[in-house]
Design a protein that fits this description.
Blueprint: H1 3-19, H2 25-31, E1 40-45, H3 48-60, E2 64-67, E3 77-79, H4 83-88, E4 95-97, E5 100-105, H5 115-130, E6 135-142, E7 145-154, E8 160-162, E9 170-174, E10 178-179, H6 180-195, E11 198-201, H7 206-211, E12 213-214, E13 217-222, H8 223-232, E14 238-245, E15 251-258
Parallel strand pairs: 2-7, 2-14, 11-15
Antiparallel strand pairs: 1-5, 3-4, 6-7, 7-8, 9-13, 10-12, 14-15
Helix pairs in contact: 3-5, 6-8
Length: about 270
């Protein structure tokens, strides 16, 4: 793989993310900093579950990944297309998930928590959101890391259907020694091929992953395990948010960020 060309591809995708109003995990974490000290956490956001996951990560220092459901039902979406652009390109639309709400009482959260406790807390929050939200989520723990991904969402007709994580698909690949950026790209390309939907690179720590070197070898392993193995090799607590970009040609965007632990966040 030509890594110079790969970096240009990543930068162009990041610009596309901003233009289409997809959220940056790094910016979202910063925006929530002021909320950490309040007992009642009130979130109004197109991805409220993703936002509360960031708060949980920052509070307890555990990696908690997040994955969007595929937003395909019209009432779950908002058209953010610029009116002038829409007139000139009637078939193109910049769609984003409709803003949702989630209120969480943090007064009952433990000051510090083992990963099992954070799993229980996360599951409780997901159950609360699932009563009124646009999707139902599940959380699983693997090797000390939590993964939040969709369990149910509405299809294009508005019917609730079962959903699976796109990172559950088995992938097989073998690379030479490449940068962490190229390794992640090899994984997302393999997932794209399996699911028939593009999985692109969004926001990632370019310096960290660009300087990290590794080989990627997988034989019918689920993509989550392969990606986790690559990120663990950096010796940095890295997490990801996989966002769905709806539209005529839908895509997923892989955003990777370092977990920032706010010491005494609940005090």
């Amino acid at each position: 793989m030509d890594e110079g060309r790969g970096l240009k591809r990543i930068r162009s995708v990041a610009v596309g993310l901003i233009a289409s109003a997809l959220l940056s995990t790094e910016g979202s974490a910063e925006a929530l900093t002021d909320s950490v000290a309040r007992e009642l956490l009130s979130i109004h956001d197109p991805r409220p579950v993703a936002q509360v996951v960031l708060v949980l990560e920052r509070t307890y220092g555990h990696v908690i990944t997040y994955e969007d459901p595929p937003f395909v039902y019209k009432d779950d979406l908002v058209d953010m297309t610029d009116p002038q652009y829409a007139r000139e390109h009637p078939n193109d639309r910049a769609m984003t998930p409709r803003t949702g709400a989630l209120q969480v009482d943090r007064s009952t959260w433990p000051m510090a928590a083992h990963v099992d406790d954070v799993t229980t807390l996360t599951r409780s929050i997901l159950q609360q959101y699932g009563r009124t939200g646009v999707a139902r989520f599940r959380v699983v723990e693997r090797e000390g890391r939590l993964h939040v991904f969709p369990a149910k969402a509405r299809n294009a007709e508005g019917e609730w259907v079962e959903r699976q994580s796109v990172l559950d698909v088995p992938i097989t690949l073998s690379t030479n020694r490449v940068s962490g950026v190229a390794a992640v790209m090899a994984i997302t390309d393999a997932v794209s091929e399996r699911i028939g939907v593009r999985v692109l690179i969004g926001s990632v720590p370019l310096n960290l992953l660009g300087n990290y070197q590794c080989e990627v070898v997988a034989n019918a392993e689920d993509a989550r395990t392969v990606l986790t193995r690559v990120l663990r090799g950096t010796n940095t607590q890295l997490s990801w948010h996989l966002y769905y970009g709806p539209g005529p040609e839908p895509s997923y965007f892989m955003n990777i960020h370092a977990v920032s632990h706010a010491v005494n966040a609940l005090r």
